Structure formats: C-alpha cells, structure tokens
Amino acid sequence: CRSCLVKYLEENNTCPTCRIVIHQSHPLQYIGHDRTMQDIVYKLVPGLQEAEMKKQREFYHKLGMEVPGDIKGETCSTKQHLDSHRNGETKPDENSNKETSEEKQEEDNDYHRSDEQVSICLECNSSKLRGLKRKWIRCSAQATVLHLKKFIAKKLNLSSFNELDILCNEEILGKDHTLKFVVVTRWRFKKAPLLLHYRPKMDLL
C-alpha cells in the first residue's frame, strides 16, 4: 500500500520488489496509482476486485476506522455493472452517461486552469539561440521541464527539443522535474516569477 511504500522510500531509493533505482534523490516524486493497469487486472482476474474490496473493508474494521466511501460503494457499482452484462443488459443508463459526458467535457475544457499556477520568465543565455518574443508565461505547476523544452523548441523552430538545456540558478534541470518541484527546491523564499534560462544542450564528457 502507499503508506508502506512511503515509509520504505524515506530511507531507500529502489523498488522494494525488483531493487531497480526509482530515482537517485527524489523517489517519492515517481510513485503513483496506475488506475488503468488496475482496471485491466480487475477485468482479467475474475472476482479479484470483490476480494480486494472485502480485504480493505476488513482492514478498516479491524483498526476501528470508518470505511472510506469509495470502498463502500465501489463493489456494489461494479457488481451491478457485471451482473447487467451477464444478463445481457448492455444498454447504458442514459442519465449516468449524460452526467459522465458533461463532466468529461468540463474537464477537457479546463486545460489545467484550475491547477496551481506558476509564473515563469524564460531567458536565453546563449548567443547561438534567439530570445523569445514573449518570455513571460504562466502555466500549471504540474507541467514539467520537458513541456518547457517542447514549448521553446516550437517557438524557436528547432528540429528537436532534445537540443536544449534548461537551467535554474545555473543548475541543469531534469526533464521530469515538475515546476512545483523546481519552485520548492530551487526558488524557495524568492519572489515570482521563477527565472529559468535555456541554452543549446552541452554534451559533458
């Protein structure tokens, strides 16, 4: 479970099962619930989801804690869904479909505007590249350095975003770092905007 993983990763940076290094310094940034994979496993193994939900409910009862709502209701909704398919009732509920489509449309139209936002200034520190016409941008804190590389490459008509390095305080940033992570670790207690520099990639031998 997640709590066990978090405790383990406080002192280790490898996978507890296969011992592969997750990340040298920030392994907790790279763990997450893979719902797609979980759904596939549940569909492939008959009765697994019901058994998992039962175990989770028993676990909470044993600790004397209230069972979370999603665990209470997940089995019932899944069972109804499976029973309807077994009985040949494949016609979806019109109201639920309508609500789902409206929610999906609302999410699609949001474009991460409801996320925490980060103000950035992108400066060029190389004579080999030109500066951006609009160097001030505001985007989601969940965006990564890789997103910024692709953005800059698009604006400068570069053949590949891999030709760029992005730096903060003269330190090259990893492509998987989120902007939130960069702000917390490299720009703490400093005023906005977050100042980042870009330059052609340097191969350090």
From TrEMBL:
This one is known as: Polycomb group RING finger protein 3
Q: Where in the cell is it found?
A: Nucleus
Task: For the region Disordered, give the residue spans.
Answer: 71-112
> Pfam families, alphabetically?
RAWUL
Q: Can you tell which superkingdom this protein's organism belongs to?
A: Eukaryota
**This protein's UniProt keywords:** Metal-binding, Nucleus, Repressor, Transcription, Transcription regulation, Zinc, Zinc-finger
Q: Which residues form the RAWUL domain?
A: 135-199
| Xref: CDD domains | RAWUL_PCGF3
Chief subcellular location equals nucleus
A GO MF annotation of the entry reads: zinc ion binding
Q: Which organism's genome codes for this protein?
A: Burhinus bistriatus
Composition bias type Basic and acidic residues, residue spans: 80-103
Q: Which GO terms describe its cellular component?
A: PcG protein complex
Q: Does the keyword Repressor apply?
A: yes
